[in-house]
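Subject: Protein record for review, amino acid sequence with backbone structure tokens
How to read it: Take the token row as a discrete description of the fold.
Enclosed: The protein record, placed directly beneath this head.
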Amino acid sequence: DVPKGDRGFTEISYAAERKLLDNDQFFHPEDALTKGTAALWLLRMRNVEELDAMEEEHLPELLERYPIIDIEDRYELVGDMQELNDMILRLNTLLYEEVHEISFYAENFHGKGTAFGETFDMNAMTAAHLRFPHNTLLRVTNLDNDTQVTVRVNDRGPYVHGRSLDLSLAAFLQLTERSAGVLRNVRIERLGDVSLVSRCGSDAPRFQRRITRDVRFHRGVPHTLALGDDLGLDSTRFFVVRTVTYPDGNTVRLERWIAPGIRFQFTPSMEGEYTFRIGTGFGRERTFTMHVVACN
């Protein structure tokens, strides 16, 4: 009964979506909690599978992959908060230690639809995964060179045996060169649902809308953006996104002309300051600075 917009609404809605509430959408904190139910809740919160593959009958198979409790103890009650914290720690450790093979997809799919009804943009920080729910946010680390990128799941795949993830080209290039093709020593950390991870409070963001006197964005570049959120720019006039400089100092030359009615989309991959060099069809340019912060 928490109204939309009130404190806690996002968390409660997420709990309902992940089946942490009973069928009448109530939470009963006084009810006894079994270890099996607690394990199932933790696995659902960490998005290890699609929801329909995380029902009670799937628990033995899930615990075989993620043995955070002994299967024969699933009907025992959780004794105290420390016991629950131990389960969380074991799950975090198991997920952290998994090593994966990943690759990327690019031009052949650019502009086509994803499994979740979005338009695939090889320049956005997104990924395809066979099981993780739509909008799961992932931190991907190349263990060979310690580079990282944060991506949002917006597609299904890959359909290659033994491969865990397909990144967009832009995300893959944050980890290695395109010629590498496949990475086989990768850590994938599940940060949770983007609606929770990227929420930074209720303050309304301030936007930088004007490129020149006559060319404006409909919304603009925010001074501050949450890690996991997308930057979208569109205008009634032609404009070009020439370069973007990342917080680590790396400058990527884009030279992407955006026509009226078309939206330029960019997903930050790391915290820090981003600088965009944007021009108009009349040859004028302006730089925009945006700070990206991680919050929860």
